[in-house]
Amino acid sequence: MDTKNRAFLRGFLITAALFSAVSCGNVEGDRDVTSAAVPVIRETLKEGLITFLTGEVTLVSDAGERYPEIGDSLTVGDSLVTGADGYAEIQFGDVGAVRIQADTRYRLGTYSLEGDGGQVSGALESGSLVAKIRRLTGDDKFEVNVPGAVCAVRGTQFLVRADEAGSVTVAVSEGTVAIAPPSMAEVGRSGDEIQRIRTVMPLVSRDQEVVLPPDALAEVEKEIVAFAQRGADTDADAAITDLEQRVLAALEKAPVPEKLTEDNAVILEEEEPTLVSFSSSGEDQEIEAPTLVSLTIRTEPSDSRIFINGRSAGIGTTSRVFQEGVIVSLAAVDSNGIRKEQEIVAGSQSTVTIVFEEPEEEAAPIEEPEEEAAQAEQTSVQTVVASPEVNFRITASPSDAVISVSGGASGRGSLVFSVPEGEQITINAERAGYESYQKQIRISPAASPHRVELTPRPIIARTSLSSGPGVGSPAAVENLVIGATGTGALYAVDRSGRILWNLSTKNSKVENAAPVVGGDRGYVIGNAEMVIFDPNSGRILARTDLTGDRADLFGRRPLSLGGYVIVPSDSSLVFVDPASGREEGSIEIPQGSRMSPASWNDKVIIADQRGTLLLIDPDQKTISGKVETGSTQPIGLAPSVSTSGIAVFSGRRGDVSAVDLNGQRVLWERSLSDGTSVGVHTDAVISGETVFILGGDTVYAMSLGSGRDRFAPVGEITAPPMVRDNVLYLCRDDGTLLLHNAVNGDFIGEVRIGERVVARPTGLGPYVVLSGERSVLVVDPRSLTE
To answer: Does this model's pTM top 0.70?
Structure first.
């Protein structure tokens, strides 16, 4: 590898709970693998944990080189080097794991945990690895840096291979990997600016792969390095736009992803890392580290192949970490094809040796007088009867279901325990998103293992909506959701589906009402009045009649900002006292507006009828900026603003605009349906680098940076979309809730609701609240998403 490429190796970035472990246990080769006690690994969730070793593996650190052991932590600056027969696996908390394959060198570079996320950086200097990453959320990042490229991951399973010639292969079986030149990390500009460049980089999606020659991104690299070396420009926006165009031109020469080859598909399937399960101590609580134990498996003769839970795990000797108490299926096949199998409980012993040699011939039994033999037999039977014990096994599906028994034994997914013959036990099993299970059985000597199949329970509550069908976009407030109905009424529902209060208003014929909560007050406007209410009790605190251009049928809503509530009308924004509803000033919108206002950096933003986006200073009540767009006559909706300051909104015919609020310029514009008017009346949803918007009966997914389609539109949709934890929730017109991967559009599953839903789904803790034509439903999606 040349010096330049080494300088750009930055490695993994993983923002999530990570863990470390006390080094325990022994491993393979000529080293001693026996232990008087089962080694227990007690994790602290701070560093990477070596969970699997086989063959020649070396740990290189400042202290020198040594053979690692199962349970060792991989700390900053350490490298794992595997030989021709060596493999190792490293797990990073509950985020995921990587399998370091043969003839590979991997180095851990930096580590940090800040706020809700963390980072781990490393370097795949040569060789290959297979990674399995669980769904990432918030600021979570997982990046693999190799010579000449950076692979950014969002919840996926993929392979990265760096060969001696400098080529890099990226193959993906699940999820999406974005590829960029390593110098992206070197650009001395704000993250918001360079984010526009990231959005145009190539993606490798599910069942695709790409082979990058050493100079694949050289032109892109050259442009970005030159941009970084120029320093600050007077016109930063013009500079980043020029760079964007140059990068797009350079990418024309880069290879494009192709269909995943059969060889790499097999590797991804057979070499998938094993993830040790973690449990949570409760909702919104920190991840609770399980008790982990190491197990070393040896064979005699030493050329026999070892299989763990049906997967090849090495030859002769191998070691792996397991959660204490789980059932481990072991097998070995010798050179003659003879197979031997056995099961053990993880933690019951530290070393297992599978022997193929024929045992020595047993000596013939010594004949005893009949009287003595009968007496011995009777003594033996009496001994068994005196303390009869049966080893009983319970397994559950899904495999992370919690099992408990009346006697106190408990486990996750599988449980083996001793119980007196004839005793009656009560088996309980539960898992989020499933019906709880309970059954009593009596133990007999020949009792078969008990299998628990939990039944998914996606709908946990359904409550009648007596005041009419749910409409608009409900608001989530702590442990309740506040929604509106088509008759103008308001209601509040909790997680159990219980209606806490109902509130009637003078508003009627409401199509898209959206309650707004600011502090300890809620607000709603309609075609007759504005109501200020207590969100917890539903008590009316104040009400103001709306007449003329202040009355609205299409779901305009107020904005709570600072010490004001800002109420939109057709010609102005009216500032009112949040307690009394008394008017305290206004600002005219010269061209008029039918939109709802939004806020950004203490400014109010709203578009007029001509599609001009206005930036308003609420203290001075003056217009401080204008950006002309082609999104004319927007109705009801408010601009949606990303964390990087990009505002997205649509005109009523489906002409969408994205505006850079920092630079006050249009980033892109597009029509949702070429040549056809598509009605848009609800806010867009911005999730990461994707914009979702409902146009007519179709939801479109577009790149925040370019406006290009992320994946194919989804039709027959009746309600605005919701995105949570990278899951896209859509309501289909046949009364079905659809779940899609929000990154690549892959279908996850569906829940049959049984009634049409036009209100936006609303998140409430782990649940999703749906307001249908006749009822409010509380849905637990975790049987599909976890």
So the answer is: no
